[in-house]
Amino acid sequence: MEFINLRDAIKSTTLLKKKGNKNFQEIKIAFLRNYTVEKIIPYVELFFLNEGYLPKFYFSEYDNIFQNILNDNSEYYKFVPDLTILAMTTSVVSEKLTYNFVETIQEDLESEMNRIISQVKKIVSFLSKKKVGTILVHNFETPKFPALGILDYQSKKYQVNSFRKLNLELTDVCEKYKEAHIVDIDFLQRFLGTEEANDRRYWHIEKNPYGQKFLQCIAQDYLKFTKVLKGKLRKCLILDLDNTLVGGILGEDGFEGIKIGKTYPGSAFTNFQRSILNLYNRGIILGICSKNNIEDVMEVLDKHPDMVLHSKHFSIIKANWKDKATNITNISKELNIGLDSLVFVDDNPFEINLVKTKLPYVKVIQLPKDPTSYADIIDGLGVFDSLSYSSEDKQRTKMYQEEVKRKNFKENFTNLDDYLSTLAMELEIKKNDPFSSPRIAQLCQRTNQFNLTSKRYTEGEIKSYIEDKNVDVFSVRLKDKFGDMGIVGAAIVKYESEKAVIDSFLLSCRSLGRGIENAFLRCCLDEIKERGCKFVNSYYFKTKKNKQVEKFFDEKGFQLLENKGGLEKKFIFDRLKHSLVESPKYFDISI
Amino acid sequence: MEKKLKDIFSEVFKVKISEINDKSSPDNVEQWDSLKHTNLIIALEETFNISFTPDEMIEMLNFKLIKIILTQKLKGTLKK
């Protein structure tokens, strides 16, 4: 991680604020804390502004968390936070555990730990009920020097391991509440080094335990959470081959001459590939963009005995002599993944510069000369982070590969309906299925193009909608003869007496072009009718990316009620007055 | 040194350099609160590559005192 000094942070922040004026998205961050965290402001401001977010802050009184959350009229609730950060440092939470560990008897230590955990549990469960949005819980940093010296490490009961146990229990608490997540302060401290992470002077002067670099690490983590919550995810990693995936130049060094394997320098590339394989297993789409002959690249991928990654791991391979900006544009089109969801990695500054200049939305990573650092660069990127993991993630590459097969198959047909009817498509529509909630939340967070309102719900919010009798959550799963695409769309309908409101309606872009939207909308409208609702309201909220659906409701027979300059459109649909969308006949639908 | 100090002052407290004088203090500089005070100290430490003691931090009550403490500190580093 690169660090910035405070003056530069302040200067850059002032500049960014001047430049960006009104284009920033406001993020309200509330700190419920028992120590001084205000020094983090300049770094949060800088990191957030860099990504287009304008942070606003609220800080609770010191050690006054319960008063803040129990009082409905508190400044905390008036602030209406997007993020609530529960920042408690152990030395304030428990002097016993911190300073009097050795003299305190085991029973008292245990009851002290139970007290702390139940306190956090109370706060988190209370806030979860209040629906304050996302809650980030700092865990506790293990002490710089253990109370019993080297003996301390010898038993689970001693100080360092007691803190570790406390942190494990804290994780259990947060796991139970979908809106609560851990910020691993102890990990970040270890990453930076305890010596650097703490600054005792500020602790004694102003009750602030952390040094400047540590605050920057923490601020970076807040940003990662925010990006996930706002659906700003990178989905696809595109890699160069020569001196990136393998050492050496395939065209010059040949199949036997490239470096990959168990000994240096090949071992560095092996570890780099292992890191990439880890991303693959997390559901990140991989691609190759290399200036080579395609036959040579395929031979290395599938025949070289030391390769970790093989052709089956890549959804797309572009090995040719076209410029890389053109190739990456084509990759984006063929996979139907936006340029702002791509990351491109290359060792060659010329290629990096070209892509950076021509395709500014693509995140580029310039690899340094030393290949032993490659794996850490990938592991530490953080741009692929997500807060959910579903079975679809593991199969994503297969799905994208099937998509390429579909495209080839499609080229044999001149009539689209003929083509679609040969696909043997099955739609499985489910209503309020709790098992689908991780995937629905993920779709809410990831889907940009076919998304009418772009509301970014978390898994916790989806779960509570599923339980809510006045809300229906629909999901649609698509299968065809090429494979199972999993859940590709979702809709959320809220009921208010005789009125239904389509709160969200979205479909993954890889499922488009088959008329699913018609079948799915029709199915939702039929379900709404079953509920006895007389009319339906729906909305279109314009974003930078959902232009393709701006006329969706107009075209499906809904009547426009309000139009705020194309930015916000409100519709009404009445079965008795308006024509009902037809579901295509080639679907086999089950509900 | 004084020029650099004034630059930092103006960046941290968002005041014009011409408005800074020996008597500038939390009483007459609007943005000079405890948080900004810490920011000033950090900026000085980073810029001059020094580390203040807690006593020095607390004594920095106005521009003149900061100048004195900083001068002493810089002399000290030179000797070493």
Describe this structure in words.
The complex is a heterodimer of chains A (591) and B (80). Chain A has 591 residues and is α/β, with parallel strands linked by helices. In chain A, helix 23 (516-530) links the parallel strand 14 (499-507) and strand 15 (535-541). The two termini of chain A are 49 Å apart. With 80 residues, chain B is mostly helical. The longest helix of chain B is centred in the C-terminal third of the chain and has 17 residues, at 63-79. Chain B is globular and about 35 Å long. Chain B starts with a helix and ends with a helix. In chain B, 20% of the residues are buried. The mean pLDDT of chain B is 91. Classes of the chains: A alpha/beta (591), B mainly alpha (80). The interface between A and B is medium-sized, with 16 and 16 residues.
Q: What's this, in brief?
A:
The complex is a heterodimer of chains A (591) and B (80). By secondary structure, chain A is of the alpha/beta class.
Helix-strand layout with pairing:
The complex is a heterodimer of chains A (591) and B (80).
Chain A: H1 6-20, E1 25-33, H2 41-50, E2 53-59, H3 65-70, H4 75-79, E3 83-87, H5 90-93, H6 95-99, H7 106-130, E4 134-138, H8 159-176, E5 180-183, H9 185-192, H10 194-197, H11 200-206, H12 212-229, E6 236-239, H13 250-257, H14 266-281, E7 285-290, H15 294-303, E8 314-319, H16 324-335, E9 342-346, H17 349-358, E10 363-366, H18 374-379, H19 391-410, H20 416-421, E11 426-431, H21 437-446, H22 459-467, E12 471-480, E13 483-496, E14 499-507, H23 516-530, E15 535-541, H24 552-555, E16 559-564, E17 568-574, E18 588-590
Helix pairs in contact in A: 1-2, 2-12, 7-8, 9-12, 21-22
Chain B: H1 2-13, H2 34-48, H3 54-59, H4 63-79
Helix pairs in contact in B: 1-2
